[in-house]
Design brief:
The chain is of the alpha/beta class and 500 residues long. The chain has 2 domains: 202 residues, 3-Layer(aba) Sandwich (Rossmann fold), CATH 3.40.50.10490; 187 residues, Glucose-6-phosphate isomerase like protein, domain 1 (Rossmann fold), CATH 3.40.50. It has 13 helices and 11 strands. The strands form 3 sheets. It has a 5-stranded parallel sheet, sandwiched between helices. A 4-stranded parallel sheet has the order 8-9-10-11, with helices on both faces. Strands 6-7 form a two-stranded antiparallel sheet. α2 runs parallel beside α7, α2 packs antiparallel against α12 and α7 packs antiparallel against α8. The longest helix is centred in the last third of the chain and has 22 residues. It is globular, with a radius of gyration of 25 Å.
């Protein structure tokens, strides 16, 4: 469902038609496939884009304009040499003045995610080879283990007991449990992994942003996430599988925040690989004559198609980001919750390349200005529905991201009924999208990955709208990066003073 902002309390998005947005998206309007009336595309910018801050809190711009008016008054006194100057004088360089900001941040993120998935398609042959080996390992009575889940959301998304998991690959928590003949997929690179390889475990190293490897500049990774023994992935593994997530983690380049890129991406890359491996392995165990590469590509193509469809939300995402910007500038707080899949909120809170404002501050200070984002994989989790209802009753802007329909059922009083804005995640299956012979339920879901992409796009566009209005929010630099922890400590006092 593509939501609109007509019912948002506390905003005037449709009351003043002259309040347009800056830098309207290019290209023809996109119509949602859900049959719901599309959100009106923003018109070209006008001088009325931004509502002025409240009188008791004059902005830097107001102060400067006040000073300019004073100077203008003095300058109006006639002098012998005074000559009128045009206030609209243009220069031959005007067309170059994009301030490094020529693309909407949500589009930057969306294109970056599709780029990562496009590169992962190039790993399909290796995925086929590795899952064929894994199937032989299982048939021989050994185990396939995984610890390719470093980060925030992966710990929840890639657990063996996650709904939709075929429960073939086991969560690796103690390397001592691995025996000769077993197989391990891991992000880690240290002498313990090397020792595991040397005692007969087949080790597949999977690249991740958070852990040092040979595919990034020397010295980029902080010592806390480097290997003190100087080992690299090639030293501890038999083969390297690339997740193609950038070592810088973020995808959005905001000129106003030049130190690092914003909005994390690692979950999409490593998550897609995780489900591709599971799909292919389950299929080969069910059918010894299965093709070398089949179900992994089916999963990847399904995921890519659904993430492409997220582009139909562009207009609504931007409208929502503007409403969030106005509330947060008035002192509102931004909270994210995800009771059904706690990894979703963890990927927005205290995360490398993520905003400092999320889940910070006192909700009760200005409840009518607050924003509650509920990111989910189900349309009617009781705790999520209750939280959304309460926040909306208090006047907060409530945003829901998830499936409107799950397994063919659409609840009448589910989460979306309590939200001002709803974003369909195009993942209406609780168990997954891959059918395997002999299994009653499909496996390998896309629900978590598509919901996460939408919430990151919303965050990216919120930053876009903030900086266009001259308000630059603070973000966390990855603690795994050299100087990241020091940067975060230094910025904390400024963030707390500013509030976002």
């Amino acid at each position: 469902m593509l939501g609109t902002l007509e019912t948002i309390s506390g905003t005037n998005l449709y009351q003043n038609p002259t309040e347009h947005l800056h830098d309207s998206p290019t290209g023809p309007p996109r119509r949602p496939t859900t049959g719901i009336r599309p959100v009106t595309r923003p018109s070209p910018p006008t001088a009325h884009d931004d509502p002025r801050p409240r009188p008791e809190q004059p902005s830097r711009r107001d102060l400067l304009l006040g000073g300019a008016a004073l100077v203008g008054g003095l300058a109006s006194i006639p002098t012998a040499s005074a000559a009128p100057a045009s206030s609209i004088t243009k220069s031959k360089w005007d067309k170059e003045y994009t301030f490094g900001h020529s693309q909407l941040f949500m589009d930057h993120y969306h294109q970056g995610i599709l780029g990562i998935l496009g590169k992962i398609a190039g790993e399909a042959e290796l995925v086929g080879e590795l899952t064929s080996r894994a199937a032989r390992v299982v048939r021989a009575g050994h185990d396939v283990w995984t610890s390719m889940n470093d980060g925030h959301m992966p710990h929840w998304e890639q657990r063996a007991d996650r709904l939709g998991s075929p429960k073939i690959m086991k969560d690796q928590k103690d390397l001592k449990l691995l025996k000769p003949g077993d197989m391990l997929f891991t992000n880690h690179c240290n002498k313990q992994v090397l020792a595991t390889r040397e005692r007969g475990v087949y080790v597949v190293a999977v690249t991740i942003s958070y852990i040092d490897n040979e595919f990034r500049p020397a010295g980029f990774t902080d010592e806390s996430h480097s290997n003190p023994d100087g080992l690299k992935l090639k030293d501890v593994s038999h083969v390297i599988l690339h997740s193609h997530t950038p070592y810088k983690q973020g995808l959005v380049r905001a000129p106003e925040i030049p130190e690092f890129r914003l909005c994390p991406s690692s979950q999409t890359g490593v998550g897609a690989l995780h489900w591709m491996l599971n799909a292919e392995l389950a299929n080969k165990l069910a059918d010894p004559k299965a093709k070398p590469v089949e179900k992994s590509i089916e999963y990847l193509e399904t995921l890519v198609d659904r993430i492409k469809r997220i582009a139909t939300h562009r207009d609504a995402i931007r409208e929502t980001a503007v409403a969030m910007t106005r509330r947060i500038r008035r002192g509102g707080r931004w909270f994210v919750r995800s009771d059904a899949h706690q990894g979703l909120s963890s990927e927005m809170s205290h995360v490398a390349s993520g905003p400092m404002i999320v889940n910070y501050g006192d909700w009760s200070a200005k409840p009518r200005e607050n924003v509650l984002l509920v990111s989910t994989i189900t349309p009617e989790h009781p705790a999520e529905v209750k939280a959304a209802r309460k926040a909306r009753a208090e006047g907060a802007l409530v945003i829901g991201i998830g499936p409107a329909t799950l397994d063919g059922k659409t609840p009448r009083s589910g989460l979306f009924s309590q939200c001002n804005v709803q974003f369909e995640n195009f993942s209406p299956e609780s168990h997954g999208v891959i059918r395997i012979r002999g299994r009653q339920q499909p496996i390998c879901p896309t629900t978590g990955l598509t919901t996460n992409v939408i919430q990151q796009m919303l965050c990216a566009q919120w930053v876009d709208e903030m900086v266009r209005r001259g308000f630059v929010p603070y973000f966390y630099q990855g603690g795994y990066q050299q100087g990241g922890s020091e940067y975060n400590s230094a910025m904390k006092i400024h963030f707390e003073r500013q509030g976002f």
